[in-house]
Amino acid sequence: MIRGRCCRDMAVHSLVVALLMLLSVVQLRADNAPKEEEEDLGFFMPMAPEQKPEKLQRLVTIAKDIREKAQKQPEAVALAISAAACTLPPVPLERALRVIKDIPSAAQEHLPAAVDLLASIRELGTAAECLQHPNTPHGSPGPLSYIIAANLYECEAIMPFWILEVLRLALLLRNDPLLQQAYFHNVTTQTNFKSTASISIYESGSQDATVTWLRVAEALWTAAAIPNTVVINGVLTRQTLMDPFSGAFYKQHRIEYLASLRNAAMEPVYTSAPGTYDYVIFINDVFFCAPDMLRLAAFEGDIACGLDFEVWIGNKKGRVSGVTQRFLRRLMQSKTSSVETIVADDSVITWQTAVEHMSKVHVEEAARQAAADARVQAAKIKPRYEFYDTWVSRDIGGSPYGKTDPIARDYRTIDLLHRGLPIPAKCCWNGMVILNATHLARGLKFRSSLTVEGEYDISECSLFCEDYRRLGATNVVVDPSVRVSYLVWTKEFHGKLPGGVGAKVPWSLIQRSGALDELQSLWRDTKSCMKMTWVPLKKYAEEADLEKYRAVDLASVNYTDIFLEHLKHPSSTPSKPATCNLIMGPYGASYEGMAFDDLSLSAFGKNPITTITYSNTTELQSLQVEYGSKPGLSHGTPNATSTVTLSSDETIDHVIVYFSEKAVSGMLLTTSNGRNVSMGVIEPEHGSYAWATPCPGDADRAGKYRLISFAGTADKVVRSVTLVWTPKE
Ligand SMILES: *[C@@H]1O[C@H](CO)[C@@H](O)[C@H](O)[C@H]1NC(C)=O
Ligand SMILES: *[C@@H]1O[C@H](CO)[C@@H](O)[C@H](O)[C@H]1NC(C)=O
Ligand SMILES: *[C@@H]1O[C@H](CO)[C@@H](O)[C@H](O)[C@H]1NC(C)=O
Ligand SMILES: *[C@@H]1O[C@H](CO)[C@@H](O)[C@H](O)[C@H]1NC(C)=O
Ligand SMILES: *[C@@H]1O[C@H](CO)[C@@H](O)[C@H](O)[C@H]1NC(C)=O
Ligand SMILES: *[C@@H]1O[C@H](CO)[C@@H](O)[C@H](O)[C@H]1NC(C)=O
């Protein structure tokens, strides 16, 4: 009967959807008409100071100091960090100081260092303005255990804010009494249950300061007694595979790669006993506010999300949205902003300097925000927020969300959406999501589509929703008052937004509005509805092609079952790719210098590397390689060069590349004869290194590949290198 209702509605509904889609197409075209544009896309954003290497270095040092102290006095230091977290914006500093004034003296001893650390982190980034929400849920709704998971990649601009917001979230989830008191004013009742929160981060391949930020984060979270697993420089990279016969390159399936990253972050969940975690919280590299997640947790749904937004200025936004947003993020870091660090000498952090430091952070943040708001006021064209994730989101009828009013098209939820009330849905992710982890005990993981078995190609998050639905986890909710963004926002973000999204509604009002009962009833009515709409991605753009949709019945073929069966019999699915990534790199500053590529000289490995000539000065100033008897061009500036000659059957089997954000510092080559050749500066003081051999970390495959050629970029020095490998015969 229930099913009947859902599916009868579908027939009429499809027509409405088709019409709405047509309308949105027309509207999109209209939007593309040329408009007057602001010169500078970043004009509305609060500017953040530059993340100078020496400042980052100091941060790593003081974060590690505090972690060391925590080893000796774990409780006192953790308490000091909770107290310090109270002093961050948006909590007024006076109120925070009132709340924390009576903490035990053992903790007070660590308070200056903790406050100074948090101020030092926060001042190096742009902060999104989180409004105070005295009426949101204050913590976990019950004695539950949470794990916050994330995949991070090249997002240094967002890290200062993100790290601290994750700290605040973890503390609030475990009902930290100090933070609750500071954030929500007069909290009178204290919970009589214990909940826990831990963190799992997986990062791989970042070449910016994300890696350094994660070292700071790891030390900070550990000192705060939040269990965490932070994998930095993980070995998963999106593989470029080479067909050894044709020499043609192809990229690993994007979704397969993204699913593997998510699974890597979920490793602690998969490897713990079922029931260890009640909820998994996935947070992208977005600006978000911690109390919003408490709101999502309060639904106690199977999947709960907010909405994610992109910023447009007029019609300016690149074709590939991710790239533009990243470009804009780079703008957030103004080179001119001069923020001096108050404490010059680490040894003199006193309570007074620490509070002054934090106070300066509050003042500057407010000033930056006010200046940005003023620029927006004065601007002819205002920033416009547009709902982003149309590819994954599905309304309660299974139709994709659109970009225009109403973004969630099912008529049963349009009114709720316009009023800013929570709406049931079939799928959402939207930059930040909380998942009931119970269902994972069935063995479910993130995956890519089983295209061989006939499943349509969709994202790993969409598949996750579909798998959850087939397993009976159908309580999905989107709260339009919870908003995240890839850039910081201005005041307008809290009000009505394009797409028919009502202004934010306080939680207390939601409770009184009857929306929660409505939600339960819609969940019940649609529980067995298995209709979904499939939408492909546009060619060459990571954007849903809403014109090419198709109806799918999730009940017709149980791909979830097929997937779970595959997992049980790993022999039937090759879980490891049969080939490794044969192109390693680029390492170094790949955007600088002229590109070179010796692959054709090497004739795809037919002409083996015979000699390498290089400058062994302060960095890798030059590199020249001879393939067979064909000398390649010299890249960089030859200066005091050395030459290595390989014997006739000697191959290069292993390479470590040392590099910085500016150039390649050196390389350590190991040959099949066990010879080590060190070029340039090995193990430099600053900078990263990478195991540039295929399948790093896979002992079975070590030594089974040989280096066939170099590519990279160079000007007066070698800026970046990429290494091309082939399996040994
Ligand atoms: C704080 O407590 C006072 C008195 O108990 C009450 O009148 C006031 O509304 C409370 N404020 C908030 C924000 O809850
Ligand atoms: C998660 O879902 C299961 C199955 O529907 C349910 O029994 C459980 O209460 C949910 N967990 C939480 C923490 O709400
Ligand atoms: C799909 O298969 C799973 C696992 O075998 C099963 O639990 C679930 O009920 C099935 N769902 C549907 C809709 O057939
Ligand atoms: C290159 O320089 C390093 C130190 O600067 C030195 O240890 C190494 O032996 C040099 N290599 C050659 C081949 O000269
Ligand atoms: C050659 O290397 C030396 C030592 O690092 C350096 O002082 C000199 O400036 C370099 N010469 C050129 C032309 O780059
Ligand atoms: C070559 O370098 C590696 C890594 O630093 C080291 O483990 C190995 O012992 C070295 N081999 C020789 C022959 O020096």
From TrEMBL:
Cite the Pfam families for this sequence: CAP59_mtransfer
The signal peptide here is 1-30
Keywords attached to this Swiss-Prot or TrEMBL record, sorted alphabetically, are:
Signal
Entries under SUPFAM superfamilies matching the protein: Mannose-binding lectins
User: Has keyword Signal?
Assistant: yes
Q: Matching Gene3D superfamilies, A to Z?
A: Jacalin-like lectin domain
Protein name, UniProt field: Uncharacterized protein
Q: Which organism is it from?
A: Volvox reticuliferus
Q: What is the lineage of its organism?
A: Eukaryota, Viridiplantae, Chlorophyta, core chlorophytes, Chlorophyceae
